[in-house]
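Troubleshooting: if your tokenizer reports a length mismatch, compare your output against this known-good record of 94 residues.
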Amino acid sequence: MKDLLDAKEKEAKLKEERWKETKEIQERKLLFAERKLAWDQQHKIMFFDVSTLAMRAQIVASNVAALNDGFDGSSGFGGEFGGGNGESLSTSME
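Known-good structure output:
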């Protein structure tokens, strides 16, 4: 009977040790995944595609130019805001 109890105790200890080892392996995998994610994010920042940035800047510049061309005084706001000829609001109210 004592041998059976000793065997059960030994089996329980082995099971607990295996569980601890499995837990440690899972924690290491998680840590590795976190480090890999951080590395990938840093890699994206370090090697950002500058041509994409230049293309975006060109699009923004063309949009700004189009807006400036649209508001050159020929808009429909001339009567309300000083006639579009440089008059200020205060001079048109006098």
